[in-house]
Structure formats: structure tokens, C-alpha cells
UniProtKB/TrEMBL annotation:
Residues 1-29 are annotated as: Disordered. It comes from the Bacteria. This is GNAT family N-acetyltransferase. The active site is at Y196 (proton donor), F490 (proton acceptor). Residues 68-225 form the N-acetyltransferase domain. Homohexamer; trimer of dimers. Keywords: Acyltransferase, Transferase. GO terms for molecular function: aminoglycoside N-acetyltransferase activity. Pfam families: Acetyltransf_17, Acetyltransf_9, SCP2_2. Acetyl-CoA binds at V155, T156, V157, R163, R164, G165, I166, A167, R168, S191, E192. SUPFAM superfamilies: Acyl-CoA N-acyltransferases (Nat), SCP-like. Belongs to the acetyltransferase Eis family. One of its GO terms (biological process) is aminoglycoside antibiotic catabolic process.
Length: 490
């Protein structure tokens, strides 16, 4: 059977294009260029058929040696997918899914690759003892380009089978498949921050929970030129994907494909559920009447008490839209506080209010975790803060990203990146290496600085980056105009 090649221009063994001074927008694979067939899909999600792909042979053999079967779940096998979804829900300690939940899960997982580990000796052998899912996506980089990424989710192992290396077998298989498919990075969000560092992942975009004391929130920011409208969330189905796509492109750390996300955000999974009926939406149209953003929110309150307005998804394609939506939220009457989760750690809101202390940050979470697989592609796609030459010596126990890389950034902030081959000893290249200062780091640290979430010098203070004479330059180069942010869980 053929192996998985979703980003064919970048598959292992393929001739790499010569490094460009300003990297071109790399061609996307045919699979990634397919049109979006459903108006319900999130920001360009793409159907892809991975059902015929074999599971990773190494992990299959390792699990078979423990009496376990490692299998791909065919999304058209309804009973098999429902059993897998039961295990996934159980693994995260969720309620047993209702028929409507299962219906939603079937739609999500029809657009992902779904794998399970099965124990034929268990009491319920049709229900997997471990689950994992994945799909190809784009990850927004500083400067507005997108890099080919492999999103991983649904990692669960039944308590009866924990700590036997099942998660390790599945995650390492995903990383090998991601490399095979041509992804430059793997990405995930985590339940616990102690699990994925060992596989080379690192927090790369934090998320803040921002709370606004409504009584102190007096707007002093500029008026947006357009206007806001209260709308039925369902009316956003058509406009939302385009807005989300633009909002994602302007924010490093956002991913551009998450099947069926829109239904969740708009409260359409089970429209009769209490959560869905509580969901309200505000839309912002610019001065030309073009929709530029929306936010969905819920208000809960005790009888005769001001309510709490909570939101976890705002899509703003322009700064005007972002300001107007924040203003609409903090000016809702009969509200004690506004609570936004998965917000940027550099939210401009305090600068828009008379009393900046009306805004407090309740929590800052590591949120997006990144694992670099191909440093040339990952580093070459982003824009840098200043011009300069930097050598990065990357250590990677799994081997995918190990090597020495030369980063040459021009005045426009664009980079030329090249791997320095061990055998390379041309006088010009060694002269160039000597000229360039360097840093030494592990692959998790490379993921941590990639989107600008943490300064290299902060990691050096933590003893996690070795300075070979270029820390100050590295700080300036990796600095970004906008803090990275991921505004969804996956
Ligand atoms: C997290 C989980 C998938 C781990 O599965 P597992 O099969 O027990 O993990 P493994 O046996 O493959 O362990 C691999 C390594 O990770 C470590 N590890 C596993 N789970 C860990 C945890 N929760 N915290 C810290 N370390 C953990 C193991 O000690 C082992 O370390 P080592 O190889 O360096 O000695 C499982 O505990 C689980 O399902 N948890 C609940 C759901 C969840 O949180 N999933 C993660 C979603 S992001």
C-alpha cells in the first residue's frame, strides 16, 4: 500500500527546492487545494481520505508484541466509529455520549484519521483501549504565512492499560507519519503539561482568561467606523468561515482547519440543548457593510442578580472589528463581569478603557504545543524581527529535527534557511558558519521560540538554551509584532 503523502513537495527523499532568499509560498498538495464542499465547515477544512493508509509498522509491531492490535478506524464503519468515540469520551472523563453527540462525532471524525488500540482479551474487545486522531492543517506563522502542520488529538489510554507504552507507541507513530506526509511541525493542545515534552513538544502559544469588571469598564478607545448587530448565531454560518480564515491568517499560532468547529461555536450541535439555546452572537460590519468579525457568548445569572457574560470564541478579521466586539461585550447592561477564555496574553483591552484595572488576567495557560519536525520549513516560513545570521544547533533524541541550521534573515524579515550537512566542509560555508553567531537548543526549545511566545534569553536563563554568542541577536530576530494565540481547543 502507498504511504501517506499529504504535503508531497516536502516528502522525505523528495528533491528539496533550493533555498530561496525570500521563500516562496510553497505549493500545497492537491489534497489541500480541494474546494470546501460544505458551508458548515470551519475555515477551509478539507476532506481527505486516509482510510486506506496502513498504520505505522513499527508501532504496530511493538503493540502486537504486547498482544494488542493497532488499527485504523474506517469512518464509514458506524459501529466501529461509535465504539471508538465511546472510548475517546471515557478517556477524557466525559459523560457517555448521547445519540446527538455521536452524530456530531461521526461528522468530526469523518474528516480525521482515526486510530485505535484493541485488546482482544478484554471484556469488550470492540471498544479500543486507546484512541488517537489526526489531520493535516496549516499553522499561522509570524508574518502571515502558514506552515504545513499535523494536528494530533483524542490521545487516550484506558486506565486498565496505562503506563505500558501505548501512548508512546501512538504518538511516535503520528510523528513518523507526519514526517512522511511532509508536515513541518506537529501541533496539539494538552490536558496535562507533563506528557508531551518527552516527544519534543513545547508550549508555543499561551492563552489567557481575561475578566472584565463591568462596572469599571468605561470605554475610551476609538469608535469603530462600522456597527455591531445582535444576530441569531445560525445566520453566521455562511459568513463565518471566511471571517475565521482571515482572523486565523493574521494571528500566529492559529490553525486553519478544525472539522465541524463552526457548529460547536455557533451552538448548532444540538440546537435544543441548554448551552445552544443560551448562545448569542454579535456581528461587526464595517462602514461598507462588510462583515469583519463576530463573537458568540452566553450569559448566566441568578434571579435578580447581574449576570456573567462568558465567551470563548471571537473571530476578528480587522483591529476595528476586535475593538468593536470587545466594546459591545463590555457595554452589555445588567452584567457584573465579562469573562473571555483562550484570549491573547497581550490583549489590547486595558488600553481601551478609562480604568485599565477593570481588566484582570485570571489564568495564563500553556495552550498550543508545537513539535518541530522540519526546521528548514518551519523556520523558513516565518518573518523575523531584524536582519542577521544565526546558527541553530538542534538536538532531537527522535532524530526528526536534529542538525545544524543556518538562518539568514534579510532586511524585509524574510529568511533563507539551510541545513549544514555534517559532511559539508566547503571553505565558503565554514567561513559563513564562523561569521554567524549561534545558539544550541533542543527541539522543544525550538518549538517554544518558533512563534515568539518566549524569548530565547528567557530559556537561556532557565538553562535550556546554550548561548554560542548570539543570544541578543536571537531575541531580536525571533521577536514578533503580535503575540501568538490559539483561540480553540483541539
Ligand atoms: C496521558 C495518557 C494518554 C498516557 O498513556 P500511557 O499509555 O499510560 O502512557 P505511556 O505508558 O506511553 O507513557 C509514556 C511516557 O509518558 C509518561 N506519562 C504518561 N502519562 C503521563 C502523565 N499523565 N503525566 C506525566 N507523565 C506521563 C510515562 O511515565 C512515560 O514516561 P517515560 O516513557 O519517559 O518513562 C493516559 O494517561 C490518559 O489517557 N490520560 C487521560 C486522557 C489524557 O489526559 N490524554 C492526553 C490528552 S492531551
Amino acid at each position: 500500500m502507498t504511504r501517506l503523502i499529504l504535503f508531497p513537495h516536502r516528502r522525505r527523499g523528495a528533491r528539496r527546492p533550493p533555498p530561496a532568499r525570500c521563500p516562496r509560498r510553497r505549493p500545497r498538495s492537491q489534497l489541500l487545494r480541494r474546494p470546501v464542499p460544505s458551508r458548515h465547515r470551519y475555515a477551509g477544512s478539507v476532506p481527505f481520505d486516509l482510510r486506506n493508509q496502513p498504520v505505522d509498522r513499527r508501532s504496530e509491531a511493538a503493540l502486537a508484541a504486547r498482544g494488542l492490535g493497532y488499527r485504523s478506524v474506517d469512518p464509514s464503519d458506524r459501529a466501529g466509529l461509535d465504539a471508538w468515540a465511546q472510548a475517546d469520551q471515557r478517556g477524557f472523563h466525559h459523560l457517555r455520549p448521547t445519540e446527538s453527540d455521536l452524530e456530531h462525532e461521526r461528522r468530526i471524525f469523518a474528516e480525521r484519521r482515526v486510530h485505535g488500540v484493541y485488546d482482544p482479551t478484554g471484556a469488550e474487545p470492540a471498544i479500543p483501549v486507546a484512541t488517537i486522531s489526526s489531520w493535516p492543517t496549516g499553522l499561522s506563522m509570524p508574518g502571515g504565512r502558514s506552515v504545513d502542520a499535523w494536528a494530533i488529538s483524542s490521545v487516550t489510554v484506558a486506565p486498565t492499560h496505562r503506563r505500558r507504552g501505548i501512548a508512546r507507541a501512538m504518538v511516535e507513530a503520528e510523528l513518523r507519519d507526519a514526517v512522511e506526509a511532509g508536515a513541518a511541525v506537529a501541533v496539539l493542545t494538552v490536558s496535562e503539561a507533563t506528557i508531551y515534552g518527552r516527544f519534543g513538544f513545547s508550549p508555543a502559544a499561551r492563552a489567557a482568561t481575561v475578566v472584565v469588571d463591568r462596572r469599571r469598564a468605561v470605554w475610551k478607545g476609538p469608535d469603530a467606523p462600522g456597527r455591531t448587530h445582535l444576530v441569531d448565531p445560525r445566520s453566521l454560518r455562511d459568513a463565518a468561515p471566511q471571517i475565521i480564515r482571515r482572523a486565523v491568517a493574521r494571528t500566529p499560532g492559529e490553525i486553519d482547519r478544525w472539522p465541524v468547529l463552526l457548529d460547536r461555536v455557533l451552538g448548532l450541535i444540538d440546537p435544543e440543548s441548554e448551552g445552544a439555546r443560551r448562545t448569542r452572537a454579535i456581528r461587526y460590519d464595517d462602514q461598507h457593510g462588510e462583515t469583519q468579525g463576530f463573537v458568540t457568548y452566553r450569559i448566566t445569572r441568578e434571579p435578580d442578580r447581574p449576570g456573567v457574560l462568558e465567551f470563548d470564541f471571537m473571530a476578528a478579521a480587522t483591529d476595528d472589528a476586535e475593538r468593536a466586539l470587545w466594546r459591545a461585550l463590555v457595554e452589555v447592561d445588567f452584567i457584573g463581569s465579562v469573562r473571555g477564555t483562550l484570549r491573547s496574553v497581550e490583549e489590547p483591552l486595558p488600553w481601551l478603557l478609562e480604568d485599565p484595572r477593570a481588566v484582570s488576567v485570571e489564568e495564563v495557560l500553556d495552550h498550543l504545543w508545537v513539535r518541530v519536525l522540519d526546521p528548514v520549513a518551519a523556520l523558513g516560513t516565518r518573518r523575523y524581527g531584524v536582519a542577521g545570521s544565526l546558527t541553530l544547533e538542534v538536538d532531537d533524541p527522535l532524530g526528526h529535527a536534529a542538525g545544524t541550521f543556518e538562518l539568514e534573515v534579510s532586511n524585509g524579515g524574510r529568511a533563507e534557511v539551510r541545513r549544514v550537512e555534517a559532511s559539508e566542509a566547503s571553505p565558503s560555508s565554514s567561513r559563513r558558519s564562523r561569521r554567524a553567531g549561534g545558539i544550541r537548543l533542543g527541539v522543544p526549545e525550538l518549538g517554544a521560540i518558533l512563534l515568539g511566545d518566549v524569548r530565547p534569553s528567557t530559556l537561556a536563563r532557565a538553562g535550556r538554551i546554550g548561548d554560542a554568542g548570539a543570544l541578543e541577536l536571537a531575541d531580536a530576530m525571533f521577536a514578533t509584532r503580535k503575540a501568538p494565540q490559539l483561540s480553540i481547543w483541539f
